[in-house]
């Protein structure tokens, strides 16, 4: 083939990766013949049952097209428009959902809580709740935590329980944004139930897209009383897929033989490899512990420019500064080694007087 395009695995986002073989095979199998529409098909039933098996509990499961919808609709189900949602100050639901939680809840306000390493501080929850209790202030109703966090750290079982204990004492509900939940489970080495319903989580947005599916996240209600008429909420929001089997079938492929955890463990291992190599370079400063599939590093400005000019893609505006380097289910050892080799070479060769300049986020998402 003339002018073949080089396929390079980048470190900007695990969304860059394609569909893993297990999800692809399930899609192909689901594409045989006809199936009942709008979720009344065997694939959707099987996917929901597998999720119940994974969490070892009877939970209500719904499928949405993406994480924005999963998070926003889940949070909307916990609140009225006069309520507020507490989350970390860099939480995705606050900084990267374009106001969707407020939109789908018809005005519920998102309030920020501080905390080290991207984790909500339970004491901060109490301070925010008790800050005001008058009728002029949006009444706190729910807490949202991200697992793994926006800076690549993970909440331990004890840390999730500590957040839950505080929310319970204050009469709040607990939501977990699990866009990279699989990576957290693989990193912590715990059973999924231990960091969800057994630790007090009421509803989980269970991410599949970043772990190997083509599209679609699951909303998992462990507190089933909160799931009332959630199907209507999904329909109104344009999240009821007519050919639902093509959202749910990849979950069958991922869950039935453990591919979801293998994919996550692979991505985590590549992030650890990248972390270890970068940590050995004096000019590079690691900003956060690498506990999932992300490495956050402070690189010299001229090196950032040079790496991008060399064709590498990565973000510099996510989290609390520095460069985010994200590994995916298909990241290979040679991808990591090639990036680090270029980084070391350009650290010496690249001119140091070039400004960073504006970053066109449209070309990086």
Tags for this model:
365 residues; alpha/beta; Aspartate Aminotransferase, domain 1; disordered N terminus; disordered C terminus
Nutshell version of this structure?
By secondary structure, the chain is an alpha/beta fold. The chain folds into 2 domains: 21-255, Type I PLP-dependent aspartate aminotransferase-like (Major domain) (Aspartate Aminotransferase, domain 2), CATH 3.40.640; 261-355, Aspartate Aminotransferase, domain 1 (Alpha-Beta Complex). Helices cover 38% and strands 14% of the residues.
- The total domain count is 2
- The CATH H-level homologous superfamily of the largest domain: Type I PLP-dependent aspartate aminotransferase-like (Major domain)
**Strand arrangement across the biggest beta sheet:** 1-7-6-5-4-2-3
The name of the CATH topology of the largest domain is Aspartate Aminotransferase, domain 2
Helix content: 25-40%
Strand content: 5-15%
Individual helix count: 13
Can you summarize the main beta sheet?
A: 7 strands, mixed
Instruction: Calculate Rg over CA atoms.
Output: 21 Å
By secondary-structure content and strand pairing, the structural class works out as alpha/beta
- The CATH C-level name of the largest domain is Alpha Beta
Secondary structure blueprint with pairings:
Layout lengths: L20 H10 L11 H14 L4 E5 L2 H10 L6 E6 L3 H4 L4 H5 L4 E5 L8 H10 L7 E8 L10 H13 L3 E6 L2 H8 L14 E4 L10 E5 L8 H7 L8 H11 L3 H21 L5 E2 L7 E5 L2 H9 L13 E4 L6 H17 L16
Helix pairs in contact: 1-10, 2-10, 6-7, 8-11, 11-13, 12-13
């Amino acid at each position: 083939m003339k002018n073949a395009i080089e396929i390079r695995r980048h470190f900007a986002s695990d969304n860059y990766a394609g569909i893993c073989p297990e999800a692809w095979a399930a899609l192909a199998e689901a594409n045989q013949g006809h199936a009942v529409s709008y979720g009344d098909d065997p694939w959707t039933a099987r996917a929901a049952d597998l999720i119940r098996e994974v969490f070892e509990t009877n939970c209500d499961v719904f499928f949405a097209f993406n994480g924005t919808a999963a998070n926003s609709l889940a949070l909307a189900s916990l609140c009225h428009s006069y309520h507020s949602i507490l989350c970390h100050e860099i939480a995705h639901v606050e900084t990267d959902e374009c106001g969707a939680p407020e939109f789908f809840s018809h005005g519920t306000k998102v309030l920020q809580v501080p905390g080290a390493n991207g984790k909500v501080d339970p004491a901060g929850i109490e301070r925010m709740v008790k800050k005001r209790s008058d009728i002029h202030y949006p009444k706190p109703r729910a807490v949202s935590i991200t697992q793994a966090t926006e800076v690549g750290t993970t909440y331990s079982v004890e840390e999730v329980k500590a957040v839950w204990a505080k929310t319970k004492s204050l009469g709040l509900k607990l939501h977990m944004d699990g866009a990279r939940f699989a990576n957290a489970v693989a990193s912590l080495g715990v059973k999924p139930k231990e960091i969800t319903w057994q630790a007090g989580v009421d509803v989980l947005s269970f991410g599949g897209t970043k772990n190997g599916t083509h599209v679609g996240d699951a909303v998992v209600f462990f507190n089933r009383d909160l799931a009332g008429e959630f199907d209507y909420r999904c329909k109104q929001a344009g999240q009821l897929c007519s050919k639902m089997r093509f959202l749910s079938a990849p979950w069958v492929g991922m869950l039935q033989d453990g591919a979801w955890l293998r994919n996550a463990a692979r991505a985590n291992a590549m992030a650890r490899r990248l972390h270890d190599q970068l940590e050995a370079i004096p000019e590079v400063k690691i900003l956060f512990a690498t506990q999932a599939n992300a490495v956050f590093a402070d690189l010299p400005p001229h090196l950032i420019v040079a790496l991008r000019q060399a064709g590498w893609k990565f973000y510099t505006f996510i989290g609390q500064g520095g460069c985010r380097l994200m590994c995916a289910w298909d990241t290979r050892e040679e991808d990591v080694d090639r990036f680090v080799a270029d980084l070391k070479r350009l650290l010496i060769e690249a001119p140091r007087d070039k400004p960073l300049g504006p970053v066109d986020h449209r070309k990086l998402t």
